[in-house]
Amino acid sequence: MSWKDILKRDISFNPDEACCMELKRGYSELMRDLQEHYDRKGIKSNVAAMSRRRMNEPCKVLVDDLQSFYAEKGKEGSNAPNWVYYRISEILDDYGECQQEGEMLREMSYRETAPVYVARPPKSRFFRR
Prior knowledge:
The protein is an all-alpha fold. It has helices at residues 3-9, 15-41, 47-54, 59-71, 82-113. 13% of the residues are buried.
């Protein structure tokens, strides 16, 4: 079930948590795949260990990590394959969309539960019931 389906189905949960869990899932899969890539190429890396340590961090830290990693694209000495940057872009885009959707749902939920004020006609000697 995607984050879009979850957000549309049940708005009684915290959308930020759902978005963060989806970000962590994407981050974990990316790092696992990258570690496997490095292992196949015989490149020593601590990507998997770093990923395990980061899973308990706030999502802001993971976003910062992914953005920093993406900033290395095309720089000399970077040995990450191009598919990694594509996946990082997807993960960050999905996270941003999820947060926007969550914000819209919060606003909709508030509008649906906000008190309704009914205006009464002004009291006037010309207006009698």
